Amino acid sequence: MIVGLFALLAVVGPVIAPMDPMGQDLAGRLAQPSASHLLGTDAFGRDVLSRVLVAARIDLPVCIAAALVSALVGLVLGAAGGYLGGVVDAFLMRLGDLVMAFPTYVLVIALIAVIGPGVPAILVSFALVGWVSYARLLREEIRRVRREDYITAAYLAGIGRPTVLVRHVLPNAIRPVLAYFVMDVMFAILTLAALSYLGLGIQPPSPEWGTMVAEGQTFLQTHWWLTAAPGAMIAGLGLGLLLVGESLERRLKA
Amino acid sequence: MNGHALELRDITVTLPEGRALVDQVSVRLAVGRCLGLVGESGSGKSLLLRSIIGLLPAPLAGSGSVHRVTADGTSEEIDREAARGHEIGMIFQEPMRALNPVRRISWTLAEPLRMHLGLRGQALKERIREQLDAVGIHDPERVARSYPHQLSGGMLQRVMIAAALSTSPSLLLCDEPTTALDVTTQAKIIELLHELMAERDLTLVFVSHDLAVISQIADVVAVMREGRLVEIGGASDVIANPGHPYTRMLLASVEHMAEQKGER
Amino acid sequence: MDELLRVADLGISYGQRQAVSGVSFAMKTGTALGVVGESGSGKSSCARAIAGVLPHQGIIELRGERLTHPRRPSIRRRIQMVFQDPTSSLNPSIRCDRAVMQVLPDGYRGDAQTRVQDLFERVRLPRHLHHAWPHELSGGQRQRVAIARALAVEPDVIVADEATSALDVSVQATILSLLTALRRETGVGLILISHDLSVVRATTDQVLVMHDGQVVEQGPTERVYAEPSHDYTRTLLAAAPSLRAPAARAADEVEHWVRT
C-alpha cells in the first residue's frame, strides 16, 4: 500500500509537483511553509515539496536497479555454489566471508572513491557488496531443495542435471529470495540516502532525499522542515518496503 | 479391582468457528486399566488426549471434565491445570522433540522433582537414579549424564516415561509413544508399560493409529472417527466381533494383507 | 520367466564406514522382493544404490546388462523410486498432471494428455484432482501421483522405499494392493523396502532380512515367515505386534461406558 503510493509518486511526481523542482527563486530563499510553497523553499529558493516528490523518481528506480544487480550477481554465484558444490562453492563462500568481513560502508565508499560518484558507481558498488547475501540464501535453499525426494525422482526420470536445476530446484529455492529482494531495496534506499548525504551518491542539483537532508542540515535550527521532509520520505518508504517484505515472506512460507 | 474409576465427561474440542473436532466424548475406565484409543489421522484422538491434560494448540478450545469415582459412587472432579505434570503425566511420539537438547537427562528429570516434591541435592540424585532404574535402564548414572542426542529412540522414550512418572501420577496419557520406534524396541516399551501398570495401579490412555499395537496393550478399545467414539468395548471383544462398520474396515485393512496372500 | 534384476555382493560405504555389504539377490519379471529391517539396517541405502542415486560396490545387472554409477539418463529411467515422505515426493510448484507428463517417454507428443489420464485412472486418483497442486492433496493421494509418475516412465523395476509408512492403515492397504495389481498387469518388478513385516509378507514373493548392513536371512517370503532360521528374524517376528489380544483379560471385568 505505502509502496504503491511511492511508486505512483515516482511516475506522476513531475506532473503533480506544483513547481519546477530545479527552478531557483533567489529572492524567495528559505521561505516559511505557505500556501504557495507548502513545505517552504530551500537555500536556493527551490520548492521543497516539489523536490521531495520528484526525488522519488530518482531514489526508487536507482535502488531497485541496485538491488536487482546485486540479486542477479548473487543468484548466479549462489546457484553455481549450491549446485556445483566442492571447490567452486568453497571459493565463493570464502570470497563472501571476505566481503562480509569488511564494514559495508567503508567498502562502498572506497569503491565510489575509485570509480567516482554517480549512478554507475552506485550500482557497481552495491552489486559487489550485496551479492553475498543473495548467494548465501540461494545456496542454502538449493542445498535444502536438492535433498527433497522429487529432485531424486526427476533425476531418475532421466532429466539432465542442468535441467533439473532450472526446472525443479530453482523455482522452489527462489521463493525466500523474493522476500529478501524487497528488504534489500529498503537497505538500498537507506544506503543511497546515506551516501548522498555524504556527497558520494546522487550529485546535486538533482533532487535526492539524502542530498536534501545534507543541504537542509545547515538550517536545521531555523528551517527544520528542509531536513524533516526528505527524512520522512526515507522513513516512510523504508517502512513500506519492510512491511511488504515481511508479508511476502509470510505468504511464501505458507 | 478396588472399584475406583476415572471418568472423562463430555470432552469437547472446538475450532473458533464452532465446529467440533472432538464431540462430547465420555468414557469411564477402571483404575489400573488401559484405554486404547484408535483412529486414523484427523479422527481427533490426539486432540482428545491433549484436551484431558489442557494442552490444546492455540485456536482450539476444550471443555469437559475428568472425575475420580470411588466404589461407593462418590465422584470428585480433578483440577486438570493443577494435575498436569503431577497427577496426570504424558508421553509423546517423538521423545527427541519433547526433551531439551542442550540439557542433560538429569536436568530434565530433576525439574518436576524440584517443583512438585521439593527434592534437593543428594536426595534428588538418588531419586533420579531410582526412576531410571524403574523404567528398565540398567546404567542410570551414564544415562543421567547424557544429552538427548547421545541416546537411542527407545532409551529416550524410557527417559520420558521416567519423567512422566516422577511425580507418581495416577493417569498416564500416551500419544503414539511407540510409533517412531523400531518393532523390537516397541515391543520392549509396551512390556515396560504393562509392568508399570501392574506395579503402580497406573491408568493409561494410549492413543495409536495401529490396531495391532492397541490390541497388545489395551483392556478397553475405543475407536474414534471424526471426533466421536464409534465403538468401545473390551479389547478382545472389539477385535473378535467388531460392531461398527468403520471398526470392521480398520481391522480389514490390517488383515487385508493376509487375504491378499490367500488369493494367489 | 526370465531374470529381471541380479544384484551380487552389493556394498555401500559412507566415507570410511561400510554401511552395507554382501547383499546379493536375483528377481524375475513381475515378481516382488521385500527388504525388511529396523532403522539403520541399511535397507534404504540399498534402495538408493539399486536405483542408481548412490555410489556402490558390487554388481547390479538389469536384464543381463551391467549398470554402472553414474548411469546414463536412458538407463536411469529403467528403475524408478517411490519415496516415504508424501510431503517431499512431489514438486510443490508443479501441478500433478504436468509432473507426470514431464517424465513420459518421447513419442507421446500428441496423446500425452490421454496417457496421463490413463495413469491417474490406473492409480485411482479422482478426476477433479488431476490438475491439482500437490498441497491440495492428502498424503495418500500424493503417493498415488508419485506412483503414477514412476509408472509413466515405463520402468522395469519400481523401488518403493517405505512408500506407505506415512499413511493411514486403510490408505496403506489400498496403495499396496494397487502396487500388486500394477505389477501383475504390467510385469514391472517391485522392490519393497519396509520396517513393517506384515506389509512385506502380504506383497512380496521373496524377502531379505537386513541387520547392521548385512542380509541375515533371505528366501521365499512364506518360508522365512513360517520357519525363520536366523535368531534376528525370529526376534523381529516375535516383536511385531499382532492383532491377537493377550488372553486373560475378559471384557466383562472391565468397566466402561459411552454416553451418546
Keywords:
heterotrimer; A: mainly alpha; MetI-like fold; elongated; B: 264 residues; alpha/beta; 6-stranded mixed beta sheet
Can you walk through the features of this model?
The complex is a heterotrimer of chains A (254), B (264) and C (260). Chain A is mainly α. Chain A has a single domain (46-253), classed as Orthogonal Bundle (MetI-like fold), CATH 1.10.3720.10. Helices cover 75% and strands 0% of the residues of chain A. Chain A is built from ten helices and no strands. In chain A, α8 (175-197) runs antiparallel to α10. Helix content of chain B is 43%, strand content 25%. Chain B has helices at residues 45-53, 80-83, 95-98, 105-117, 121-134, 140-145, 153-165, 183-200, 211-217, 235-240, 245-263; strands at 5-14, 20-30, 34-38, 61-69, 75-77, 88-91, 171-175, 203-208, 220-225, 228-234. Chain B has a six-stranded mixed sheet with strand order 6-7-8-3-9-10, sandwiched between helices. In chain B, strands 2-1-4-5 form a four-stranded antiparallel sheet. In chain B, α7 (153-165) runs parallel beside α8. Chain B is globular and about 55 Å long. Chain C has 260 residues and is α/β, with parallel strands linked by helices. In chain C, a hairpin with a 2-residue loop joins β9 and β10. Classes of the chains: A mainly alpha (254), B alpha/beta (264), C alpha/beta (260). Chains in contact: A-C, B-C. Chains B and C meet through β2, α8, α9, β10 and α10 of B and α6, α7 and α9 of C.
